[in-house]
């Protein structure tokens, strides 16, 4: 039995007392006040357990808790569960729940709420948790009111990273049992355990939350109320912040950042966490089923031809990092530093294309001379599918690849069309997708490379990459709990895929939160971002 | 206007709206795109997608879906939104007042101001006032409303600090009664002005042209000859000049709704425009069809009202 962490009650108390001392907190947080938060879409409902929609999660996570929370580095912290043990090499997890938690309606929180939430709701309706956990789980036991046991068919590594309010918010059994969780009226009158309780929902306009006076973390929250304002246009959100109408923005567009940064009225902070998807990398995908792109030399040439610093500067206005490995640097333990990623080198790109049989013959675009599966004289022309919001990536692709004789036609497609075109019809040469790694590579990275993930489900293995060794390494990493051994496995995977280049990883795209300087104590790396926030009047 | 005529016209509304619904249904089905994506997000396996499809009947043949939908609509059930998980009728009803307020304000504002400016310009034809109104109207008509909205937010709201840039009320205020009404008016000012700008420009130009035309007519010379004051003369001319204006205003209710979609998005006005936009993006077909039903119904009914106003303005017109 591995005993990773079992904080004593004393340590627990120390942890709780430490919480207010977070980013931007004032020395003595002011009590009271209302925080106005801009959200970019009307969530429709406030039940984060039945959806992975960023709109619902951004608006509703403060009403709930997960079994665990997450600290600034993404590591698990006690929340509804005060301690846990990992047994049988990771095939069994045992959680000890806090004794003093009550639902907003006064009912005590027990282990049966956890079992119900997972079995009847999350594993059916929460797309991420269902996809990663449902096949591996053997059962959930509740030997008593304060103990929950997760039994897996084989060791299951990522569990502790998918128990926060984003991946697995716990909802009340006594409210939801025996109903369809998708249409239960409580989705609009939510009952949670979180730092704030539901007050009002004016559809399309705003959601009002009020302090939970019986929150189980002593002294929290500081604020009396939070208003989530629906403001769809990003530009309007920034204007509303500058005009003093809202206090907190989830994301500031690149061009507005320098203006806000130099304004003493505001504070900015960068984070890779987002309730709709964390640790995202803008990734070019190659359709490996297309003869044009089967030769790794062509893919490598494309990688060499792309100046990723230019993407960082011109598209992201410097907000982010050039990707140094296939796994995000935010997952530091899994990220393989020092890999030989193809560097920007046009001469090398031209050399590789020549060697692959794509010749320059006077015209700007290269033509095939002896390329396997391609008729001689075929122009080296590819399309590039992207969301309309990513049109700048298309422009730079066209420009950079045009310089080495590859003709790129960008095809902007809105998300609802993009997904079936790429994953169902497989009608594309190249594309760009913001692949979010999530809290663990099992959740957001495996789906890009594992051969079982080739299929119509959106945002899976777009390249249709197939590599037995990579499959086996992912499977092994998924059942290896010891982090150092997992790191080594993910490193091997990254070394292979950087050689094979089924994708090319452009830039990591953290987002920038902004808030009024009179407010502080935010924790931008979690969905319970305002749990310890306060505002001076 | 005979009651029989009115009944006959009303009877036309039903097939017109039904036809629009069927066409809309087919067009949405024919358009590429997958509603399941909006529900599943970036993650989710094939089993999850199949489960959602089955839950909403999306695995059934298109004609069966149309048949089921039509049957429900006849029974007065517009269905449930896939994304919101709630009845379409209540989703629309919740947001209708905000849009009605915005559209009505813009329509009243643009009609009144348009007529006043048009008359003022016509009475001083080819003099500086007229040239000013014509130039401003041309600019106003040519400026896209979403751009005008951003400009107004930057200058009138952020620049002067007098107006809010978003919402229908102050997020921190918890007023009721007349104080709340004032707050809403304060928030309404910019979006209504921006939405009215296009229509105002069009109305002003039409009124000006009509009144200039009418002022040159024989009956006006007669009116002036018998010594009527100039105000009464202009009123005579205006009544005739208004005929085409009424037609145009009535016919532009659909356009006004389109403008409202853009203006609502920029000013975060919690109306139908935002709902329409997000439902298109997520392919939330039941909501889209519900909105089409509402808008097409509104356009058909406004056309009827326009025809009735026409008969009232021009006693020579008789509907049988």
Question: How is this structure best summarized?
Answer:
By secondary structure, chain A is of the alpha+beta class. Chain A has helices spanning 9-18, 54-60, 111-125, 127-133, 173-176, 234-242, 254-261, 296-305, 308-314, 346-355, 391-402, 415-424, 441-444, 446-449, 468-478, 483-500; strands spanning 2-5, 34-39, 68-70, 76-78, 81-87, 92-97, 137-144, 147-152, 196-202, 206-211, 225-230, 248-249, 266-271, 280-286, 321-322, 358-359, 367-368, 381-386, 407-412, 430-436, 503-508, 511-516, 519-520, 534-535.
Which labels suit this protein?
heterodimer; A: 537 residues; alpha+beta; seven-stranded mixed sheet; six-stranded mixed sheet; 16 helices; B: 320 residues; mainly alpha; globular
Describe the structure.
The complex is a heterodimer of chains A (537) and B (320). Chain A has 537 residues and is α+β, with helices and mostly antiparallel strands. Helices cover 27% and strands 22% of the residues of chain A. Chain A has helices spanning 9-18, 54-60, 111-125, 127-133, 173-176, 234-242, 254-261, 296-305, 308-314, 346-355, 391-402, 415-424, 441-444, 446-449, 468-478, 483-500; strands spanning 2-5, 34-39, 68-70, 76-78, 81-87, 92-97, 137-144, 147-152, 196-202, 206-211, 225-230, 248-249, 266-271, 280-286, 321-322, 358-359, 367-368, 381-386, 407-412, 430-436, 503-508, 511-516, 519-520, 534-535. In chain A, strands 9-10-11-2-12-22-13 form a 7-stranded mixed beta sheet, sandwiched between helices. A 6-stranded mixed beta sheet of chain A has the order 15-21-14-20-18-19, with helices on both faces. In chain A, helix 3 crosses helix 4 (127-133). The longest helix of chain A is centred in the last third of the chain and has 18 residues, at 483-500. Chain B has 320 residues and is mainly α. In chain B, 77% of the residues lie in helices and 0% in strands. Chain B contains 13 helices and no strands. Chain B is globular and about 85 Å long. The termini of chain B are close together. The model of chain B has no long low-confidence stretch (mean pLDDT 85). Chains A and B meet through helix 4, strand 11, helix 6 and helix 12 of A and helix 2, helix 3, helix 5, helix 7 and helix 11 of B.
